[in-house]
Design goal:
homotrimer, about 160 residues, alpha+beta, 60s Ribosomal Protein L30, Chain: A, five-stranded mixed beta sheet, two-stranded antiparallel sheet, 4 helices, binds magnesium ion
């Protein structure tokens, strides 16, 4: 029993904010995400991809960005809670394919670290977490955008 | 035998038009879709996702937006026809993961109704239709965008 | 053993450039892709989708657009190299679903030729390559955007 999940995220970028991707701070970023939580666009889209595969809503249901309780929230906690929900439904992630669209900085040198960290957070080997980086080619110079597709496999009844 | 399908849709929004999503009218929408048909961006992207999984073209082939015959068309008829084509090819949808990007109104309160309606239209249990809502974060304030990923399973030879 | 892959591409369009999609020149295009290689947005997104399914990075790793060696590169060579890498990992593509977003020209009349060519390049029957065409509805009139989802199947240990 296999299911597909798909999720997206976007954040506006501004100076004076941190840029965190897959739980990894990007030290060379001149701009970071404007967000209620820590603005980790990989983990947000990944969490939504996993929730969609089991039809359990999206992270806005569980962590509304209007709730002061979640201000500055570490997105690893969001992903952790989502993994609990997915496993309670009897599913586990099989593999993940994600694309980050960001004009600057170039992220290629951080691919291995980000993939390794995402893999550890979801409990998969690194060989099951594909990470691609693209630029917006002028379409969104002051935003980060992420899109994540995942397979999930049923592990219990 | 499993196949993946993927489809997208986008429509410009304007006052004085209805907003219909997954066959469900959104009564609180100040702007609706500018479209030749009823502009249901969920059902259009879903129909294209299903067609792509069986490599049968896209809805523009079957319902060209230049044909007066399809003016104001109820998109449930588009999806119904596409499901016939998919089933004739021997496939049936297994699960669906969809993302709607829309700045206003917030749609979270309508998630269950939209998911239930889409599930009924494609003949799946609600547990197989994941629906996520995002905002464009300033990238597309006067548009609705949808992206749909689906798994299809072969059911006959 | 099934894996999902997902990839994207975008290019700015300008007069005086060729538009090539899935290895097929589009003769009626008034604008083509501004790119370091031949700018084939279908093959770039497809190559990234396949790499992501086996977690082997993206085409920027193998064919950096800062390297004069790859100026004007035929993207069929990129895809060919990526297929070698995927097969070395023990996987082969099962089916492909791709969306091209482009305002002009309309591409519907070229769908069969593009699908046939992509299928031949990846070694799949045409029945496993779904091709959809969309317009940006005003969001990106001077760009081409592509998104590709693929299933891969493990064929050896
Ligand atoms: Mg976010
Ligand atoms: Mg539409
Ligand atoms: Mg490219």
């Amino acid at each position: 029993m296999i299911r597909v999940g798909y999720g997206e995220d976007a954040h506006r970028l501004a100076a004076g904010h941190a840029l965190i991707l897959g739980g990894v701070p990007v030290p060379s970023a001149a701009m970071g995400t404007v967000a209620h939580s820590d603005g980790d666009a990989i983990l947000h889209a990944l969490a939504d991809a996993l929730l969609s595969g089991v039809a359990m809503g999206d992270i806005g249901d569980y962590f509304p960005d209007t709730d002061p309780l979640w201000a500055g929230l570490d997105s690893r906690a969001i992903l952790g809670r989502v993994l609990e929900l997915v496993r309670d439904r009897g599913y586990t992630p099989t593999n993940i394919a994600l694309v980050v669209t960001l004009d600057k900085p170039k992220l290629g040198s951080m691919r291995a670290e980000i993939a390794r960290n995402v893999a550890a957070l979801v409990g998969l080997p690194e060989s099951e977490v594909g990470v691609s980086f693209k630029t917006s080619e002028g379409l969104a110079p002051a935003h980060i955008q992420t899109r994540v597709t995942a397979l999930l496999t049923r592990v219990k009844d």
